[in-house]
Amino acid sequence: PCEVKSKxxxxxxxxxxxFLGELNFKDGDPVEQGDTIFAQKNxxxxxxxxxxxxxSQRLHHELDVLRTDARTISDVPTKMINIRNVDNIIxxxxxxxxxxxxxxxxxxxxxxxxxxxxxGKWLYKSEPIGEISDPNDLLVYAYVKxxxxxxxxxxxxxDITLNGLLKYYTGTIEKINTISIDKLNxxxxxx
Length: 191
What we know:
By secondary structure, the chain is an alpha+beta fold. The protein has helices at residues 43-68, 76-98, and strands at 2-6, 9-13, 18-23, 30-31, 36-41, 101-103, 108-112, 122-123, 128-133, 138-142, 157-161, 168-172. Helices cover 26% and strands 29% of the residues.
């Protein structure tokens, strides 16, 4: 028994709550580094940015008025602090807005976890959408009987054929773990 895994894997998680605005790849599609896998929309966040932009403009106008009158010039530092606070809030919402778009960190193949996923669905932070893996850079975890392990040495060249497939994998043994197969009894890996 064995497992075949990509050395490079990336799970595309939702990084902030929001509606699914676009899903650009179907299950099994090839992706390139930098491609947008999915993008979300969060009307609440968009509204908060607009409200805070208006607040920032209002505070700037008040600041201009305060600077024109000698009696209110002492209120200028407080107003500037208010402006800085609102600008920080806007900056935080802009940072969160960037999290609504997830891109591929490398070339690979996209696996969609929920094939029924449609645009407009509300997605929650940390929800996995899919996975990108590189099918050209694989690791094979092979499980052998304890009595057979002495045949294998680090650096040996090996060919692994999977049951039911004509394809075989050629590679080099990079690591040998001597965990006893008895400890894996009942594992789905041994069925």
